[in-house]
Amino acid sequence: MLALLLAWIVVAAVIKNSYFIHMLFMATTYALLACALNIVVGITGLANMSQAAFFGIGAYTAALLATKFGAPFYINIIAAAVVSMLFGLAVGAPTLRLKGFYLSLVTIGFAQVLRIIEINWVSLTNGPMGITAIPGVSIGRYLFSKKAYIFYGLVVLLIILYVTKRLMASKIGRALSAIKNDEVAAKSLGINITYYKVLAFAMSSFFAGMAGSIYAQYTTFVSPDSFVQNDSTTLLCMVILGGSGTLFGPIFGAIVLIFVPEILRFADMYRLIFVGVVMIVGILAKEGQWFAHVQKFFKDRLTSLIRVKSGNREGAV
Amino acid sequence: MEELLKVENICVSFGGLQALSNVSLSVDKGEIYALIGPNGAGKTTLFNVISGFLAPTSGKVFYNGREVQGLPPHKLTPIGISRTFQNIRLLPNVTVLDNVRLGHHIRLKQNMADALFNSRRFREEEEKSIEDAREILRFVGMEKYENEFARNLPYGHQRKVEIARTIATNAELLLFDEPCAGMNSAEKVGLSELILEINKELKRTVFLIEHDMRFVMKLSEEITVLNQGQCIAYGTPEEIQEDPDVIEAYLGVGRKGGQE
Amino acid sequence: MYLQQIVNGLTLGAIYALLALGYSMIFGVLYFINFAHGDIAMVGGYVTWFVAASLKMNFVLAIFAGIIVSTLLGVAIEFIGYRPIRRAPKLSAVIVSMGFSFVLSTSVQLIWGTRSLSMPIFTNVKTFNIGSIIINSKQIWILVIATVIMVLLTLLINKTKLGMAMRAVALDQSTSALMGVNVNRTISATFAIGSALGAMSGIMMAAYYGVIYSTLGGLIGTKGFAAVVLGGAGSIPGAMLGGMLIGIIESIAGTVFNAQVKDAVAFVVLILVLLFKPSGILGKDVMKD
After folding, report:
1. CATH number of the domain at B3-80+171-259, out of 3.40.50.300, 3.40.50.720, 3.20.20.70, 3.30.70.100?
2. Of A265, B32, B142, C147, which has the fewest beta carbons less than 10 angstroms from its beta carbon?
3. Rounded Cα gap, residues C101 and C226, in angstroms
4. Which of residues 167-206 of B touch A (CB under 8 A)?
């Protein structure tokens, strides 16, 4: 894994082509979002279908702070994280008491309502036109190049990974995984499951907000179309297929779902089909034990083949 | 003897179905108490009420003199009630040691900052927790399997790990729901010895549901018999064995079946 | 004026209700929201458009073609996608259903493009004035057909052997299997009926507005599940009631506020219901685990 990160850094340092830089930045951002989502989906086992909405809240917060007040990037990123987390609490606290599938419904509904607010509250968000000319990140006189944002993203990614790793080794992580595995058992051990679910939800939206702030200052432009339901679903897919609950799995998921369609040079439309097929086949292969069935199928064929052969030989003898 | 748990006129109804009606009993500190009765008598329902998984329709539960009915499980465990389940509820993909350590959840003081910065308190607590969990595993005789995933253990061993987990919570009252279901007689003997040790050496009060009459007769000091949601008898094992109502409702069924 | 909006709302609501019924039936037997449902409905609409507009065939025939394709699609999706993972965590099934939703909606875009296509059904619209209310022949057709379908469905569920099997499977799969119910076949039948209802809904939606477009599935899909939640997940009468209410609330909101708010209203209702009465109006209490 360390090798992957090193490779990432080396590639980021070497590449010059602005298209590749953009791709690598997007992969970093999605890796970030997927790792944040992993806390809720992978570790705690909850279906959050609005990660892109929290990403958007972070981006809008940073965009507004940067354009209206000229706030420096460290203020932007922290404010974006906090605002996004507050939204996460507002959505999570009442819903996480309910059965699992309600969360998926509420998060989808929340994302849609948020989008409509983004489009209609023109005085704040500039409506469908979005917020333009967001100043980039600068430290002193140094203005970040596009490439620098990859490193900015990587630093935040490392922070998320560190936090996740530390938490997984603590009482909090054990409680979250107990909730994922067996809520009844978790309750019987004195774990306040609503509290921990809300905590996981808040952490995930916190980091998603950070990603939003980086993205806003990188692209210098945010609009309601930057954060749509398809992105949330794709992120969910990255987490589940990459290996939900593992530390680095979501990064692999992000890499595959960002780069493969790009390498295959899919048009935008085909990309969604690709993501859809990956979601279907990936889950079926994982949960339906297709591999086991296929293996058994060939094994049976093979053994019958061997039997026939050896039978022939015996016949010959 | 001092009273630890008192159940007073508990009624539970699901829709039109009366699962428990006016059940009362009291468990003393330091004893082994058994709840027996045929299938569907409402034994597990009563456990669910006591452990906070189910709010009773009416009636009261007192623990150490405090009224606790309707409190959620996560508030009952810290004050001293812990339970096992009829269908074992270990986390299948977690090691035996970590399963037991989950029992430490309520007593660990570490917070998020401790965990993030690997503070001294965090390290000490984690070490202590691992040590304690190992000791409990030794106590139940499962120390060999500490790094095994719970799902790989045979049934009888899983039971013991689940019991170890309740011990880890430090709860004074342990509720065991049919601890020897699905065990052979040798395993049952081992388990009843273990329960006695938990009672005598660790000074925990044990309240158990059991199906196997012989198991209960040897182990417990007091017995309540439930049938169709009602207490039909209460007494020492000897008294219960003599009780005509019990023989009728519980043993009788078996005997008749055997004779015919 | 409100009376007029209620008539318009009922028409729209009947369309939503048909879709919500499919969602709710599938939710009832498999306990997850089939996110591909709206897209299955939309495919029905497109097939009808194709047969009626491109092949220039009789529109009744076109409607049947749409229903048949959706039905087969629904059954196939269940067979390929959901049956192998029935015992896996529900989140997996949800993701597979979203995958199918992506595949269906983008396939439709690839085949028929992203532009709106005009639906050549009910071109000859007559309007009637009843007092201050204006009602047109489209609305009458939709209301009549939807009512007939709902009555038939209610009879099917309450009076037939299949309906009984569906109710049994919804209650407890393993017990109904022990009682001799063929669970797999019942679930297939549920998907068939649900998808056929969905197709009806998709076709009516396209016919009502006179156009069909590729995001229609997502649009009515979300309205449909808002209706399910409002009425109570898993409840058949709840889905009908929920659909009607969403339609009426939307129509009224559309005149009081604007068109965009109209589309958001379903979500606001959805969130409010989930916050204050998560079991919905007619649902069983499924609030806590």
Report:
1. 3.40.50.300
2. A265
3. 17
4. 169
